[in-house]
Write a structure and sequence with these properties.
With 171 residues, the protein is mainly alpha-helical. It has helices at residues 2-36, 68-88, 96-119, 138-156, 160-164, and strands at residues 42-45, 49-56, 122-127. α2 (68-88) packs antiparallel against α3.
Amino acid sequence: MEQGKTKLKSMLYFFLCTILFVCIDQASKQAAQQMLRGKAAVSLIPGVFELLYLENRGSAFGLMQGQKFLFLSMAGLMLFLIPYLYARIPLTRRFWYLRMIAVLFLSGAVGNAIDRMVNGYVIDFFYVSLIDFPIFNVADIYVTVSTFLLIVLMLFYYKDEDFEQIHIFSK
């Protein structure tokens, strides 16, 4: 019974953190839309970093323009798949990183999906002009950081026996 309560608390934490991160993403996009739309870039670090409003109808780096149905379908899949996987991650300190990665990844997917549903595009506004990096947003940061951390952890931290503890198709 105690294990069930702990698992329930963990899932509640997962959803509350996801909602918090999505709210931060949406608030930043709302602010960008109000303050930057139709205006010139705002240079925060001259020649390095700017705030520049962009309506992105594609995916990362502007690829696959106009594929709204595909992007929303992928986000819908993530909305079910990530909580399912999260519920199977052991509630030990060793797997805390995986649980946070799940929160970040889902937050990014949901944040950009909300934009696509409401606006028909994703609001991007961070621009690293020094290297002419594609314009991005907070949700993109969540997805990129979580993906990078997952790769690093899989290569250097977690072992095969750790992943054997995650029961994907049982329980």
